Amino acid sequence: MSEPEVIRKLDGHVLILTLNRPERLNAWTYDLGDLYFDLLDKADADPEVRAILVTGAGRGFCSGMDAEVLAQSASGAKRMPSKGRRMTHAMSIRKPIVGAINGACAGFGLIQALHFDVRFAARSAVFTCAFTRRGLNAEYGSSWLLPRLIGHGRAMDLILSGRKFDAAEAERIGLVNRICDDGELMSAALAYAQELATWCSPIAMADAKLQVNSDWDVSLNDAEDRAKALGHQPGHRQDFAEGVKSFVEKRAPNFIPLG
């Protein structure tokens, strides 16, 4: 049997998902996307999973939509993810998603990378929006996400030009958090994900994701009030007590799983 288009591996409390079409630089298809979203949903519901790490097999992370899919779309064919999900479905996952961007990250591949909470990149990684060079606008929420990550002017440059840029520029403008030598990318990204899984409250991380992703649209006072309300929920109070106790006792905390 051939390997699945997304490989799943559990390493402790970190789920590693690997996009697995290396002969096509992991170009996106709807079948691959449906499997990827299914695995994300299962991870979100699994209390054993506390953090998710996503990377690509071979030389690329994701080179964008597969050429055959693009040709079908250009001819008028319409297809959306299964189960009523959006292309931005990964944004709805409560658990932290760390990206290990190991190579080409283009078009729809870049959009999926924008959904990660923290992005590591190989020194050899290359990025591009590419949309305007295919006769497309800023697709699938990239016009909302990219300016929030790197600022209006930089987002306009990348979206309008569709130019390629390297990992050094991606780090300089804030698109990626850390650059690693190619051979050290996975170990560094996994170590970071393991740190989240070991030391950070799953409930607190889930609520922090919700706050950061939605507090753009509310006032400072409303953001503060919601933080207070979340902090007084029962799970938070229990994890807060455990977090303080484990800090005093100099040990790893035993936080409530999120399932």
In short:
The protein is α/β, with parallel strands linked by helices and 259 residues long. The chain has helices at residues 30-45, 67-74, 108-114, 142-150, 152-161, 167-172, 185-199, 202-214, 220-231, 234-249, and strands at residues 6-11, 14-19, 51-56, 60-62, 97-101, 104-106, 118-122, 126-128, 165-166, 178-180.
The low-confidence parts are none
Order of strands in the sheet with most strands? 1-2-3-5-7-10
Q: How much helix, percentage-wise, in residues? A: 40-55%
Describe the largest sheet: 6 strands, mixed
CATH topology of the largest domain: 2-enoyl-CoA Hydratase, Chain A, domain 1
What's the count of strands? 10
> CATH first level of the largest domain: which class?
Alpha Beta
Figure out the total of helices.
10
How many structural domains are formed by the residues? 2
The oligomerization state is single chain
Q: What is the first-to-last residue Cα distance?
A: 32 Å
Q: Tell me the structural class.
A: alpha/beta
Radius of gyration: 19 Å
